[in-house]
Amino acid sequence: MPCSYKDKLQDYLEEKLSSEEMAKTEDHMEICNDCQEGLDNLLSQSLLLQKQTLEVEDEVLVEKIKAHRKGIRRIYAYGTLGFLLGLFSLKYTTDSFIVTKAIMALPYKVAEFMLGIFFSGNKLNQWDPMYRHFQRGMGYFPHNPILGLIVELVTPALVAMFLAMAVGYLTSDKRVFQRKRIVRFILSAALIFALWFGAIYGFYHHTLTKIENLEGIKSVIIYEKQEFSSSWIVKIDQYNIHEARYNNIVIGLSEATPLDSYPPMDLKEGLELLIQFQGGGEVTAHVDTDTGAMYTGDRRFHQLSDETLSQLIEVSGGIK
């Protein structure tokens, strides 16, 4: 006759019995071999089931880890390739093959649009007398061509990198790269661009401050300005700036007095200067050789001392 406690073994194992029944079952199993054997069988089956479940879960976990690593490698590979291609996006204007031209033009135009939102006010209009000197590339940083070149190389590269990484995300395993990760990626991209644009603004503002104060002049190119043309006269740079007459001119330009009002001056003839600053800044300046008034490309007026004006006229061959 089968033992009546055998039907309670599963509930005993899962602790579904009352405290009183649990105690009675334990007492019974001490004297009933059939129940002891039945409990051992149940324990063996339970352990096997748990082991199989763990193995399945481990396989799923391993698969997820592999998919994650593969996706990360793909995203970084796409990003690196995108950045390198973006560095050459400036070449799209000379590419004759329509497919590569379009691919390279996309990050450049997106970068140009983004920069235009923040820096379009820096551009010179075509009627500005300084336009022919400073209109290069996108034209957002006319007074610092080095910064302008760096921005035109790096910004499209960053755009291309994030576009490529976005493709990497979208083509990755959806079980691993979920919406939360993509949102985090977008926020990271926005933060990087904000920091990049902030650094650009800070550096260019520093350049404009140096130009405004005529601070840190490293070279000056002097032209003779006539009504419809100009001709090169002399360049003051690292090779001759230590000569007294040239050094005095640089010092005199740095010490020019800012003017609050527009002075009477002849902008058609006189001397035209291209003043270059440490750190890549540059500005043109027109000097009226009769009055010593100087108009710089950042739309400011300065008054040169009589001594500085005389030295400029002297090194320019006595032009008057």
The count of β-strands is 7
Mean pLDDT over the full residue set:
81
Low-confidence stretches: 51-57
Major pleated sheet: 7 strands, antiparallel
Q: How many discrete structural domains? A: 3
Structural class: alpha+beta
Tell me the radius of gyration. 39 Å
Strand content: 5-15%
InterPro entries: Znf_put
Protein name: Putative zinc-finger domain-containing protein
Transmembrane segments: 75-94, 146-170, 182-204
Pfam families: zf-HC2 (PF13490)
Structure report:
The longest helix has 55 residues, at 33-87. This protein has nine helices and seven strands. Strand 4 (270-277) and strand 5 (282-287) form a beta hairpin. It has 320 residues and is of the alpha+beta class. Strands 2-1-4-5-6-7-3 form a seven-stranded antiparallel sheet. It is rod-shaped and about 125 Å long. Residues 51-57 have low confidence and may be disordered. The protein is 56% helix and 13% strand. The protein has helices at 9-13, 19-29, 33-87, 98-119, 131-134, 145-170, 179-213, 244-254, 306-315; strands at residues 217-225, 230-236, 257-259, 270-277, 282-287, 293-296, 300-303. Helix 4 (98-119) crosses helix 6. The protein has three domains: 4-60; 67-213, no CATH class; 217-315, no CATH class.
